[in-house]
Amino acid sequence: MTASETNRPESDNSVLQAYEDSPLTPDRDPRLQKIAQFAADRNGATTRRDLSIESDLQLREIDERLNRLAAGGYVEIVGDDVDCIVLLTAAGQQLARGGR
């Protein structure tokens, strides 16, 4: 038998077991981290329209993600649905830095 001919079955352990069944929290969701990083690159404030343009996501999808970030205390949304400003909180700034 050569090294390339193993008799072991392929592994299904490509996903860490600790994270497999746990919910995807903002600090582990790269899409939400990207939104926080975009806002951080603009001195901690941006608009939902700018986020939509930058990410190629529809406003509805941006709103869903912003609501998750706001519920977690990562952003504060100021204004109405049309003309809102997204402000990073201290937790959001930490999220933008990758949790460091």
UniProtKB/TrEMBL annotation:
Biased composition (Polar residues): 1-16
Region (Disordered): 1-29
Protein name: MarR family transcriptional regulator
